[in-house]
Write a structure and sequence with these properties.
The complex is a heterodimer of chains A (about 270) and B (about 230). Chain A has 2 domains: about 1-105 and about 220-265, Periplasmic binding protein-like II (D-Maltodextrin-Binding Protein, domain 2, 3-Layer(aba) Sandwich), CATH 3.40.190.10; about 110-220, 3-Layer(aba) Sandwich (D-Maltodextrin-Binding Protein, domain 2). Helix content of chain A is about 45%, strand content about 25%. Chain A has helices spanning about 1-25, 35-40, 45-55, 65-75, 85-95, 130-140, 150-160, 180-190, 195-200, 235-245, 250-260; strands spanning about 30-35, 60-65, 80-85, 100-115, 140-145, 170-175, 190-195, 210, 220-225, 260, 265. The N and C termini of chain A lie far apart (about 75 Å). Chain B has one domain: MetI-like fold (Orthogonal Bundle). Helices cover about 80% and strands about 0% of the residues of chain B. The longest helix of chain B has about 35 residues, at about 20-55. The chains are: A alpha/beta (about 270), B mainly alpha (about 230). At the A-B interface, helix 4 and helix 8 of A face helix 10 of B.
Chain lengths: ~270, ~230
Amino acid sequence: MPISVKNITIQALCCCLLVLAAVPALAIEHLRLATTTSTENSGLLDVLLPPFEEANNCRVDVLSVGTGKALKLGESGDVDVVLVHARSKEEKFVADGYGVDRRNIMYNDFVILGPIADPAGIAGSKKIAAALSRIAEKQEIFISRGDNSGTHIREMQLWQDIGVIPVGDWYLEVGRGMGEVITMANERGGYTLSDRGTYLAYQAKTDLVVVVEEIPGQFNSYGAIRVNPDRHPHLKVELAKRFLDYLVSSSARKLTTGFRVNGQQLFYIDE
Amino acid sequence: MDYLLTSLSAAIGLITQLNQEVLSTVGISLYTSLTAILLASVLGVPAGIALGLKQFTGRRLVLTLLNTLMSLPSVVIGLLLFGMLSRQGPLGGWELLYTPLAMIIGQTVLATPIVANYTLSVINGADNRIMSTAMTLGAGSLQSGWQLLKETRFGIMAAVIAGFGRVIGEVGVAMMLGGNIRGFTRTMTTAIALETSKGEFAFGLALGIVLMTIVLLINLFLNLLQHR
């Protein structure tokens, strides 16, 4: 009967598809990591992840989004681990029961980037906050991440500290990743707040320079948190634990501090 | 399921309370898309009519080019125009990048081939006795052309509406040339992309509902025209 032949063909095809879809899933485990654009854009993860993947015969699927979104992904159990940078939000995430086992991983610092001509005249300023209030006063173009990322959260904190509510034609909230914001600030000849890591990774592609930096720095520390398996039983608890242990292991720390872009160190280790 | 329902009710709340942010985003979207479709119609309709009526060497080439342009992804148009308008680009001095005007230019480039192509097929499909009858009745070629335009007006309106549907829903040009600046170049589509990446699902959903409603209305209108 021609119909049954056709049926068999379809069934065989479906089987093939199922097998194809299932084979890689059976072969290796996948760990889902939500992290920020700064760790992904800088290229650090390309160095840090392969040794772990090899040792545990797994794959780490990286979702690079802003800190706000990364934590939301954790809340809804869409990822196993988050690696983000907004201390207050991280602590709240754990306190609210969404995450467990927070670890300090690494840090870098925030800097103000701007055009070399420096229209606001803030170069050499010792404080990032003071420089921001000068930018606001002179109404020079400032590009804000505006995306609830760790960098955006820090920027809002800084405005609040100096009692400025940034509104006006000069203040552009663009809601995009750090790399895109650097490109936009470059195009518009404006200023922006950036983590040093992303800037170093983009240095070759932009005319912007570090106009203001602080010593000691406006620290930007990254924490890794496991998503609470009590809320989401499907999570890969064992693998996530091993991943966090790996991140704070001496071999991972050596890779992190040894990571260079254009000969410059991007990340430092806590403690 | 709960998550979707609460988000949906929050979204509907934002729309019914005429949330300022939602309104401004919708306004910017409509402003850029309507201006772009106006420009695209001024360019595309005459181009379509000319292509439909005139035979000339290289016509096939122009038609192929038009079809290619029509299926060009908006990110490619965004990319090319970004290169033109960027500081290092030839038109960098105009300082258009990241302004609504840049988006309008990009969307015009996007919509013109669509309007021209649809107009062309309307003209091709029109009764070819319209022109000759008008001519016999003593009309000049301009006058008979006008007559043709009158006879095919519903088809041409459909062409314009198809172009509008394309630009109001596109995100590539708006994001790359507009830059998603809040209250200035943030459109419904770029806002949806942003709000989702921020984890603000309800706000994105509100804009999604507005966008879908607009597109639905456009298509209902189109349907109405086609059945006249």
